[in-house]
Amino acid sequence: MVSKYLSLHLPPNPHSSSTTAISPTTTRFLTTRPFPTSIPTKLSVSRRWLSFSTMASSQATPSPTPTSKFNDFEPHPTLTNDDLKPTAPHQRTFSGWEMASLWVGLVVGVPSYYLAGSLVELGMAWWQGIATVVAANIILLVPLVLTGHPGTRYGISFPVLARSAFGIRGAHLPTLLRALVGCGWYGIETWIGGEAIFLLLPKTIKQSSLSQFLPWLGTSPLEFSCFIVFWLAQLAIVWRGMDGIRELEKYSAPILIILTSCLLLWSYVNAGGFTPMLSLSSRLSSSQFWSLFFPSLTANISFWATVALNIPDFTRYAKTQTDQIIGQVGLPIFMGAFTFVGLAVTSSTTVIFGRLISNPIQLLGQIGGFTTMILAIIGISLATITTNIAANVVAPANALVNLSPSKFTFRRGALLTALLGIAFQPWRLLHSSESFVYTWLVGYSALLGPIGSIILADYYLIHRMNLSINDLYSLSPHGAYYYSGGYNLAAMTALVIGILPVVPGLLQKLGILTSVPDTFVAIYNNAWFFSFFSAGILYWILSCLKGKDRNSHPLDPLLPAAN
Fold first, then answer.
1. For residue range 473-507, what is the model confidence (pLDDT) as tens digits?
2. Which of 53, 245, 347, 376 is 20 to 30 Å apart from 509, CA to CA?
3. How many structural domains are present in the chain?
4. Does residue 39 lie in a domain region?
5. 63 belongs to a structural domain
6. Which residue intervals make up region (Disordered) (predicted)?
7. In this structure, are residues 105 and 249 in contact, taking their beta carbons and an 8 Å threshold?
8. What are the residues whose beta carbons fall under 8 Å from the beta carbon of 144, sequence distance 6 or more?
């Protein structure tokens, strides 16, 4: 039932007047903390109102309770719609396995394989590649779990959480930066799916004039057409929203695990066992390895830093904090296992084909065989879709909804994300391993690192995990997150200062600058670490200097502490 008003119906206290005033400070704040199990709670959500109705349990002994009134939760219409509201209890359906299966769908994909293979191509031994990837994902697990906490606790998405740190209006900047990276990744994944379609085409078509490279396009018309076909195919799933994404991830995980195991078994049989497969030793000296290790570590962290930043978009649907934490642990486990597959299969190509093949699409072309080809194409397509939709559609779509809730829905945001994915020309980003790892991955980590650290510092150090849901949806100048005209200048300053030192190194990688001092090269090679810690520490210092009250959101005494 849809209710129009927010009220708590409680028996009157005989010791207090029914007209007792409640201070504005107390009534202004409302949290979405769960009620005790002994008090049945009825939650109904309408487009503009959130209604709670509680009554004493029939099993509880009646006792006098003070009468209290709360202000109606009336979010500003420009700050909310059905996609931005806190999730209701009946929407919290993600179990620990479903959260973990999300990571199976994300990890088992061509970019993850390509990332692992590129480490071998750059000269690392298989064990050096696995150590690099696992170390990066264990490090990333910490901000992943910490950022996921407010999503589960308050049922809010990443754009809404960003309002707490950056301000009601200032939150558009970090969410749009995250959306920009998501659009680029969407294009990359879609291009990979298009390559899978290209493999299925008859040789006569692939050898026609349509396959000739066009310099102005950066690829051939035929490959571009396959890219567009796969681009269109994904929209059918995107159109179903979060429910469609959850079902896709849940049922595709076992299939992807089986297909990955088959690929590893094929390599094992054709290479004559694991010993020849993993006999490829490092081609790097000790100094060369360490010079590659930290940039590779940063690149691997950046690989999933996108999802780690907007993980509240998923954890808001988790049943409990335990479920979201158990689910997140799947990242280093599954990523380590799939990295082994990628490294082993890539290494085995030197034994089987006499040359190193790090691109799985090219490897499938070498394997041949109609049945093998069909199964491989199904696997690549499924892996690409599961990764692309979950990792690269949800965040940009929610960012666009947050930008203008009255104009954008999740579907419209997803459609614009897909269109921008074409504009990124992903075939150029995948031109070589170096451009993929050290330009694309390391480059955007300078944007995401400071955003993540500012949000974490704000949530844990400044607000001590206590947020006002009312004020996250309010444009009132007296709101806790309105700051200066809706912008938190401390967060904006920290974000800019965290990014600027990385820019010279990025410009050198892009070929815009011929040379830069070694200090800027070192900063760029460790872009995520540098920007993450520098921005987070600076934001904390600036917030403390402003004298911000860390306990500015008193908890209502009628609501118990959240789990």
1. 999 999 999 999 999 999 999 999 999 999 999 99
2. 347
3. 1
4. no
5. no
6. 56-83
7. yes
8. 304, 307, 308, 311, 328, 331
